[in-house]
Design brief:
191 residues; alpha/beta; Nucleotidyltransferase, domain 5
Length: 191
């Protein structure tokens, strides 16, 4: 008997938010296999006005959404640093990117930088260069398509991290008591 295999297709937009450079990467998933769709950066350092930078972030995310029609957004969460002003600006950039996705009804998934690095390299303390190298090898990205800015591969890493996390089997709800265990495992219990 012939069974037709269903083709599952999904696009994930990954974003590394920043107010000087915002990196992004798009993965296309077909039959549970990721491939690079696009990656790039939005350079913002020439714009002095912080609010104009936020506007450009919003417009770029909207244009990526309208062009590639992603199903999900994976975004790097800001890490806690010593400079409060930098944290505030980074949080605003992240919020603007999230608002753009929400305006198009795209679900958002947030990952800590440590989680992203761990997911890609197996080492939460990996360098940006190690992450980029593994992404290049895993996704078979030709050298000429790699960008000098690591922000692009950071955005792509967020997308691939989300792909890995969403394909992990979800653990069952934890048992709350022995009675709960017995009720959910009656067939396994010898009487």
């Amino acid at each position: 008997m012939y069974f037709r295999k269903m083709i599952k297709e999904k696009i994930i937009l990954g974003v590394d938010p920043g107010t000087n450079v915002m990196g992004y990467g798009l993965l296309k998933i077909i039959n549970n296999k990721p491939s690079l769709l696009a990656m790039g950066v939005l350079l913002l350092h020439k714009t002095d006005d912080h609010y104009l930078r936020l506007r450009r972030i919003f417009e770029r995310i909207i244009s990526l959404i309208d062009e590639f029609l992603p199903d999900e957004l994976a975004i790097e969460a800001p890490f806690f640093g010593k400079n409060v002003q930098s944290m505030l600006k980074l949080g605003r950039a992240q919020g603007i990117a999230m608002a753009a996705a929400l305006s198009r009804d795209i679900p958002i998934f947030e990952y800590a930088p440590l989680k992203i690095k761990m997911s890609i390299t197996g080492n939460g303390m990996a360098s940006k260069e190690q992450v980029a190298d593994l992404l290049q090898r895993y996704l078979k990205i030709p050298n000429e398509e790699m960008l000098p800015q690591m922000d692009a591969t950071d955005g792509l890493a967020a997308a691939l991290c989300h792909f890995f996390q969403s394909n992990r089997p979800q653990p069952e709800k934890p048992y709350v008591s022995w009675k709960d265990y017995i009720n959910r495992n009656e067939k396994r219990i010898i009487k």
